[in-house]
C-alpha cells in the first residue's frame, strides 16, 4: 500500500498522509456503487436534483473556513483566491439548479404523428437523459473550482450522472475533505449512496477510465495527460466520450489605435493578468502582439515595471515549478540563439530561472519579432511568463496569427470606435478560439448561461464547454421514443406537460 | 493509376471505370478548395443556405430517373426503394432549410452585463458557428440517403461547412453522378467553388481524414472501418471529431400478452422488417425475443412461412455477401455444436449458406434459448438473417437483455393496455439504445425534428444523431463573444435581432 501525501508547497514538506492509493478492487467497488446510484439519482427528478445542488452549495459554504485553510496549505494559492474559488463553485452549483428548473437543457422535441411527403410519420418524442456514471479528474490549479467541487461535478450531478472523482495528487487533503462534505450533504438530501465516489493515485485514475460502469470522463489538465487517458479509452471494448480541457496560449492583440490610446493601462492590466495565480491559469495570456514603435514600447515598459518588483511566486507543486523552469529555459535559449528564424530576446534584465527555493517562480517577460516567432513562443508555458511579439505591419501580424494553435480565448484591444482592424482580427481569430474577448483579459471566466470555455484542439478535444450552463450537455445523451404509450414516457414528453420549453411539430414553445 | 470500377452485383461484371483513384496531391487540392469555400459558404447566411438546400433537392429531383437507373445498376436495391431513398434525401435537404430558417439550432444565448454574487459580469453572447470542412464517407447500403446525397451532407451544408465526399467503392458511378449534380446546382445557386468535393479510393479516404483542412468526419459503416479512421484521427497533430454510425443488433421483445394477441401478424411483419433491403439496414432487427409456449410457436411459424418462399436476395456487393456467408455459417456452427452454453438451432429446413450465385443471400432464421445465447447471436450480421430467442420467465429475459450490446433501436411489442412488463423493459432497454420503438419495427427511420439515430457504442461513438434536425449539431461549435462591440457581432447576437429563438439573461424567448 502506498500512502498519498499532502505536501505544503511553501515548505516542500509532507504534512500528512491523506489516504492509501485506491486499489483496482476498490475502484471497481466504487464504480459499481456509482452505477447503482444512477437510476435513483435520475429518479430524484429535476426538482429533486435542483434541491440537491442547492444543498451541496450550502454544505460547502458551511465548511468554508476549514476548506480554504486546507486548500491554502496544499496549494499556496492564498485565502482570497480560494474563497473566491469556493464562491464560484457554489454559484455554479446554484446556476445548475436554475438550469434544471428551466428544463430547456432537455431539448424536448415532439413530432406528432401525421402525413408527410415521405408517407405517414410515427409519433416521435426526443429528450436528453443522463449518460451514466462520470469520472471527473481534478485539476491541480483549481482545487475548488475544477476539482472535487467544480464545474464538471456540478454539471454531471445536474445531468443526473453519479460522479467518481479522481483526486489531484497536488491537493489530496482538500479533495478528500470536499468529497466527504459533498457525500454527506448528498446523503442528507436523500440522494443515493454512490452519488459521489473518490479515488486516489495514478493507477486508480487509469483503472477508473477503463471501468465499464464509467460512461464519460471530464478532465482538465495537460495534453500529455489527456492523450494518455484517451489511449486508455481507445482500448476499452466500448469507448466513451472524453472531455478534455488541455492547453491554451490565449493570444492578446493590441491595435495601434489601442496602444496610442492607453499603452500604460494595458501594460499594467496585462501584467496583472498573466501573473494572476502565478500564471497557473488555462486562460493565462501567453502571447501579446504589440505594434512596433514608441507607443508599443511604452506598453512593454509598463509591463516590465509592473512585474519588476514582484516576489518569486510559490507554484502549486514542484512538478509545475520544474516545468516552468524548463519552459522558460527553452525560451531563454531561443533568445540567446537569436537568428533570422528565432529572434527571441529577454524583455527584462533579471535572472530567467526559477528561484532555488522549492516551487517558486520569478515572473518573466520575453520579447520577439512577430515575423520570426520561435516554436517555444507558441506553446503554452504554465506559470508567470509571457512573450511579447512586436509587429510592424498587418500582413506580418496576420501571418503570425494564422500560425498559432487554437486557444480557449483570443483577445483584441482596439481603439475607441475602431472597427476595421478589429473586424479583420475577429474574422481570423474566430476559427482558432472558443471565446473572443474585447478590450479585456482572458483570465476571468464568468459562470453564466452564455459562457463557452472550449475551443479546437489543443484547447479541448470536443465542441463542448466545461464552464457555464451548457456544460451539462456533455453528460447527457438523446433518446427518442417512437409511438410510446403516454404512461411509458418521461413526464416532460407527455402531452399535458408544459412547464419546460418544448419544440412541437417544429415550433418552439417556451414554458408557460 | 488505378481505375475505380462500377460493378453490377446482379451479374458480378464491371460495367465501367468511373474514375481514377484520387491521389494524395489531388486530395490535398480538394481539401484546400473546401477550406477556401468555408468563409463564403457561411457568408451566404442562413437564408442563403436554406435556398441552396432547396436548390440541391430540386436538382436531384430533376435527374431522378438517371440517378435511380445508375444506382439500381450498381446496388440492385430496386427502383422503388431507390426512388424512396432519393425522396427521403430531398425531404431531408428541405427539412434542414426549415431548420435554418427557424434558427433555434444556433443556440443563441445572451447574458447582459450586470452584477452577480461573483462580482460584475461582462456582456457574453454565445452561438454556434460552422466547424469547417467536413469529410463524409458514403455508406454502401444507402447510395442515395447516407452517401453523396444524404443526411450527413445535408446537415453539414446546412451548418455552413463545405463537404468532401468519399465515394463508396460499391457505387462509385452513383456517387460521381450525384456529386456532379450537387456541385453544379451549388455553383448555379451562387455557393463558392469547393462547397462540394469528391474523392475515390481507400487511400484517398485515409488521406482525407488526415488532411489538416478537414475539421470533422461523418461515417456510416462497420466498427472495423470506424476504428481504422479513428486511429488515423488519433495520429493527427490536431485530432478532430469523428461521428461514426457503426453497428447495431436492434433487439425486438414480444411480451406474452402481445404474442397472445397477434402472433401471426407480428411474425409476418417482423419477417418483412428483417428481410427489407436484403437485411442490409443498420436498423435491421437481428434478435427477436419470443416467449416459450404455443403462442410464441405460432409467431415463429409465421416468420418461417413468410420467408419460406423468398428467393435468394441480391446483395450490395461480393464483400457483403461473403460476410453474410461467414456470419450465417458461424451461427450454423453454433447451432450444430449446441450445448448447455450454446443452444442455437436452425429455425428452418433450408440450406444455411448463401446462394452460389455472386452476391446473393438466402433469408435465414435461427432459434435459440434466451438462457444460453451464443456470442454469435448478439453480434450484428448484415443481411437477411435473424435469431429468435425463446424465453421462459422474466428473469431469463432480463438477464439476456442485460447482456446485449447497445443498439440504435430497441423495440417492445406489448398487449393491448399492458403496462407493467413494458415499463420494466423500457427501463432496462433505455440505457442500451437511442430509440425505443413500441408495437412497430425499427427499420423505418423517419426524418423529423425529434428523430434520434444513435446510441452508445457500438451503435455510434458519440451522443449525436445522423438523422433528423439535430444532426446539424455535429458540424457546429460554440463561440462566445465577450464585451464585443455590436458591429463585430454576428447579426443573430445583436440586441435588435429577434427572429431566432434566443435565451436572454437565462430566459428563453421564441422568435417573434
TrEMBL record, chains A, B:
Keyword annotations from UniProtKB, A to Z: Oxidoreductase
InterPro entries found in the cross-reference section: Ald_DH/histidinol_DH (IPR016161), Ald_DH_C (IPR016163), Ald_DH_N (IPR016162), Aldehyde_DH_dom (IPR015590), Aldehyde_DH_Superfamily (IPR050740), ALDH_KGSADH (IPR044151)
Highest taxon listed in the record's lineage: Bacteria
Every Aldehyde dehydrogenase domain range: 4-413
Presence of the UniProt keyword Iron in the record: no
Pfam families in the record: Aldedh
Gene3D superfamilies for this protein: Aldehyde Dehydrogenase, Chain A, domain 1, Aldehyde Dehydrogenase, Chain A, domain 2
Keyword Iron: no
PANTHER family: ALDEHYDE DEHYDROGENASE-RELATED, SUCCINATE-SEMIALDEHYDE DEHYDROGENASE, MITOCHONDRIAL
Protein name from the UniProt record: Aldehyde dehydrogenase (NADP(+))
Source species of the chain: Actinoplanes sichuanensis
Amino acid at each position: 500500500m502506498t500512502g498519498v501525501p499532502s505536501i505544503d508547497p511553501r515548505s516542500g514538506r509532507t504534512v500528512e498522509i491523506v489516504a492509501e492509493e485506491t486499489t483496482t478492487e476498490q475502484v471497481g467497488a466504487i464504480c459499481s456503487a456509482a452505477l447503482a446510484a444512477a437510476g435513483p439519482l435520475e429518479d430524484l427528478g429535476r426538482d429533486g436534483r435542483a434541491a440537491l445542488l442547492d444543498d451541496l452549495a450550502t454544505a460547502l459554504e458551511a465548511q468554508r473556513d476549514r476548506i480554504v485553510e486546507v486548500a491554502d496549505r496544499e496549494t499556496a494559492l492564498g485565502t482570497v483566491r480560494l474563497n473566491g474559488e469556493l464562491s464560484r463553485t457554489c454559484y455554479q452549483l446554484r446556476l445548475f439548479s436554475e438550469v434544471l428548473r428551466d428544463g430547456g437543457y432537455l431539448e424536448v422535441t415532439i413530432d406528432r404523428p401525421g402525413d408527410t411527403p415521405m408517407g405517414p410519420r410515427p409519433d416521435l418524442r426526443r429528450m436528453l437523459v443522463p449518460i451514466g456514471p462520470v469520472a471527473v479528474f481534478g485539476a491541480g490549479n483549481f482545487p475548488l473550482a475544477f476539482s472535487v467541487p467544480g464545474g464538471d461535478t456540478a454539471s454531471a450531478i445536474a445531468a443526473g450522472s453519479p460522479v467518481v472523482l479522481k483526486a489531484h495528487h497536488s491537493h489530496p487533503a482538500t479533495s478528500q475533505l470536499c468529497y466527504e462534505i459533498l457525500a454527506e450533504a448528498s446523503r442528507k438530501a436523500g440522494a443515493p449512496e454512490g452519488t459521489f465516489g473518490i479515488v486516489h493515485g495514478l493507477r486508480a485514475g487509469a483503472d477508473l477510465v477503463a471501468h465499464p460502469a464509467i460512461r464519460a470522463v471530464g478532465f482538465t489538465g495537460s495534453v500529455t495527460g489527456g492523450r494518455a487517458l484517451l489511449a486508455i479509452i481507445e482500448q476499452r471494448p466500448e469507448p466513451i466520450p472524453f472531455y478534455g480541457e488541455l492547453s491554451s496560449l490565449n493570444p492578446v492583440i493590441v491595435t495601434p489605435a489601442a496602444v496610442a490610446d492607453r499603452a500604460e493601462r494595458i501594460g499594467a492590466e496585462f501584467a496583472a493578468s498573466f501573473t494572476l495565480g502565478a500564471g497557473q491559469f488555462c486562460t493565462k495570456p501567453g502571447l501579446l502582439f504589440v505594434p512596433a514603435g514608441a507607443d508599443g514600447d511604452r506598453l512593454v515598459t509598463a509591463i516590465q515595471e509592473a512585474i519588476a518588483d514582484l516576489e518569486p511566486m510559490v507554484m502549486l507543486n514542484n512538478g509545475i515549478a520544474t516545468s516552468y523552469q524548463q519552459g522558460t529555459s527553452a525560451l531563454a535559449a531561443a533568445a540567446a540563439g537569436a537568428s533570422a528564424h528565432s529572434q527571441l530576446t529577454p524583455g527584462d534584465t533579471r535572472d530567467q530561472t526559477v528561484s532555488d527555493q522549492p516551487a517558486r517562480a520569478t515572473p518573466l517577460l520575453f520579447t520577439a519579432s512577430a515575423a520570426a516567432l520561435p516554436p517555444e513562443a507558441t506553446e503554452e508555458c504554465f506559470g508567470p511568463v509571457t512573450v511579447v511579439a512586436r509587429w510592424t505591419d498587418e500582413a506580418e501580424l496576420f501571418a503570425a496569427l494564422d500560425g498559432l494553435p487554437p486557444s480557449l480565448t483570443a483577445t483584441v484591444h482596439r481603439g475607441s470606435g475602431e472597427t476595421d482592424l478589429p473586424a479583420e482580427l475577429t474574422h481570423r481569430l474566430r476559427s482558432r478560439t472558443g471565446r473572443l474577448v474585447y478590450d479585456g483579459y482572458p483570465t476571468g471566466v464568468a459562470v453564466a448561461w452564455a459562457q463557452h470555455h472550449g475551443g479546437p484542439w489543443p484547447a479541448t478535444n470536443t465542441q463542448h464547454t466545461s464552464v457555464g450552463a451548457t456544460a451539462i450537455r456533455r453528460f447527457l445523451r438523446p433518446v427518442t421514443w417512437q409511438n410510446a404509450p403516454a404512461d411509458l414516457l418521461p413526464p416532460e414528453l407527455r402531452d399535458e406537460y408544459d412547464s419546460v420549453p418544448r419544440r412541437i411539430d417544429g415550433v418552439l414553445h417556451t414554458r408557460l
